[in-house]
Amino acid sequence: MRSDATYDVTHVWKGRFFRLDDHIERFQASMRGLRMSLPYSSAEIAEILMECVRRSGLRDAYVQMICTRGVPPHGTRDPRLCENRFYVFAQPFVWIANDE
Question: What does the pLDDT look like over 27-38, one tens digit per residue?
Answer without folding.
Answer: 999 999 999 999
